[in-house]
Amino acid sequence: MLNIKNLSVSYGRKVALTVPKLSINKGEIIGVMGKSGSGKSTLVNSCLGLIPFKGQVRIDTNDVGILMQEQHYVDTMTNQKMIEGMLNTRIKRDKKLAELIDFFDFSSQLSLHFKNLSGGQKQRMSLIMVLYQEPELLFLDEMTTGLDFESRQALISQLKIYFKQHQTTVLMVTHYAQEIEALADKLLVIHDGQVKAFDEPQNLFKQYIGYSAFIVDNRTEKSIKVQQPEDEYKVARRLIDNGDDFRRTQSDIELVYTEVMKGQRS
Q1: What predicted TM-score, i.e. pTM, was given to this entire model?
Q2: Residues 6+ apart with CB under 8 A from 103
Q3: Considering all CA atoms of the chain, what is the largest pairwise distance in Å, rounded to the nearest integer?
Q4: What is the CATH number of the domain that holds 31?
Q5: What does DSSP say about strands 64-67 and 137-141: parallel, antiparallel, or unpaired?
Q6: Is residue 168 part of a domain?
Q7: How confident is the model at residue 265 (pLDDT cuts 50, 70, 90)?
Q8: CA angle at 157 for the pair 156 and 163, rounded to the nearest 5°
């Protein structure tokens, strides 16, 4: 669905991003993590042809959608009129649109103006208009930044159902590890304009951490790596005897990301 080869983006003399090779298959959801300025949004903009680049970017579909962190619409008309006008249709005569509005629980917001919506409601409205066009490939760039925890969780839960039903291919930039755990098939870590890791989370966990890990006091920097199953009992017994609060994991994305950024491998 998306294939990148020898991608290079420069701003003046500074090389902002290099991607030797990256392939995303149809129906895959890729979660992209990295620090601010690492090259995540540059990757999205390159794929969309919004900035100059060297190399090859091949997208095997013309049905591409994008949703950024912030959306801006006029406030002089209701949300219903805006949706209908931009999509050139009428909700009462369009089953697909009506189903999307119902799916994202947006019916009660149709009579309001965009400025009166919460952050989560604004993103739902944008998603309705993007998904109405049934994109085969969807780019999400920091879509949930600024939303409160409950709004973010509700939106991600809805998207998980939608993506599974429609087999949408997604490249999702986020700094929330929980979103990648909930949605993504693979994790892509970018740092200083370079791809540091790209694989299924469970494979990266084995590569950078080992068999399992015990996270103490819910702090990844206090995690204890376990390389063999038979070593787990000793570690757990010691933590219990010390009265430590801990949890065991074999898939924690935040821990994987932390270890990738350290450059450590088990």
Answers
A1: 0.86
A2: 158, 162
A3: 66
A4: 3.40.50.300
A5: parallel
A6: yes
A7: low
A8: 80
